């Protein structure tokens, strides 16, 4: 698939998405499936971490609430996003992962204890 040669992806949770990794806009900006993550060559630990981060978002920022269930959930989510971004960039040198923390934007990232 052409996305496997992409040099840039977006790391972003969205409600009930299968993974938090998105193809670039020029390829349609679609969310990658679990199979796509396998095709990228990500190891099991990293794939599991990405899926857990997405599940954490769905559990602690539910669509019915449309917000975080607690400030600590927001902080945990943001911290894990930065960690995963770093791990992805280390796992796939030369590929950029843009972290989109849209659910955290209402919170001043400068005061989060990351």
Notes on the protein architecture:
Helix 2 runs antiparallel to helix 3. The chain has one domain. With 114 residues, the protein is mainly α. It has 3 helices and 3 strands. It has helices at 34-39, 44-60, 71-91, and strands at residues 8-11, 21-22, 96-99. Strands 2-1-3 form a 3-stranded mixed sheet, covered by helices on one side.
Task: Give the structure's gist in a few sentences.
This protein has 114 residues and is mainly α. It has helices at 34-39, 44-60, 71-91, and strands at 8-11, 21-22, 96-99. The chain is globular and about 40 Å long.
What keyword list fits this structure?
mainly alpha, 3-stranded mixed sheet, globular
Write the layout of secondary structure elements.
Elements: E1 8-11, E2 21-22, H1 34-39, H2 44-60, H3 71-91, E3 96-99
Parallel strand pairs: 1-3
Antiparallel strand pairs: 1-2
Helix pairs in contact: 2-3
């Amino acid at each position: 698939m052409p996305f496997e040669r992409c040099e840039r992806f977006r790391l972003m949770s969205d409600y009930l998405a299968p993974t938090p990794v998105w193809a670039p806009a020029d390829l349609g900006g679609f969310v990658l499936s679990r199979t796509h993550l396998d095709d990228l060559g990500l190891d099991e630990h990293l794939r599991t971490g990405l899926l857990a981060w997405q599940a954490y978002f769905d559990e602690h920022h539910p669509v019915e609430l449309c917000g975080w269930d607690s400030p600590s959930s927001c902080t945990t989510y943001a911290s894990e996003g930065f960690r995963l971004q770093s791990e992805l960039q280390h796992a796939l040198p030369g590929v950029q992962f843009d972290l989109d923390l849209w659910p955290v934007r209402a919170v001043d990232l400068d005061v989060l204890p990351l």
